[in-house]
């Protein structure tokens, strides 16, 4: 089975490349990044892997979603955002998510 190459971007703009298995879930990735925190990311260090969240194509990845399920292109580096957030919006809560955006102060803008 081929490896999946991820480039993770922090809100600060700092990036780091990692390699994972297609069987790795969003929770596995957060744990690995937390345990192997890049030296250049010291200012962004978090207290627990449980608050690290991945964003792919504008959507939060829930913990049990595997890289294989995303059908990422093989042999290419896929870019995802890594953010610290206590809770995730509920799946399919589009109306609520739009309402939250107006009151949320620590969101990131995806261009």
Automatic annotation (TrEMBL):
Domain Ubiquitin-like as annotated: residue spans: 4-82
GO cellular component: plasma membrane
Membrane topology: Lipid-anchor
Entry annotated with the keyword Ligase: no
UniProt feature coiled coil, ranges: none
Compartments reported by the entry: Cell membrane
SUPFAM superfamilies found in the cross-reference section: Ubiquitin-like
Signal peptide residues on this chain, from the entry's feature table: none
Keyword field: Cell membrane, Lipoprotein, Membrane, Methylation, Palmitate, Prenylation
Protein name in UniProt: Ubiquitin-like protein
Taxonomic source organism: Hippocampus comes (Tiger tail seahorse)
């Amino acid at each position: 089975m081929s490896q999946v190459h991820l480039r993770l971007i922090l809100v600060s703009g700092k990036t780091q490349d990692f390699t994972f298995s297609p069987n790795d879930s969003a929770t596995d990735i957060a744990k690995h990044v937390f345990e192997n925190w890049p030296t250049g990311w010291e200012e962004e260090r978090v207290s627990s892997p449980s608050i690290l969240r991945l964003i792919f194509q504008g959507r939060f990845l829930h913990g049990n979603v595997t890289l294989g399920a995303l059908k990422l292109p093989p042999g290419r580096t896929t870019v995802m955002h890594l953010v610290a957030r206590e809770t995730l919006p509920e799946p399919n809560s589009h109306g609520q998510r739009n309402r939250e955006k107006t009151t949320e102060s620590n969101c990131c803008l995806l261009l």
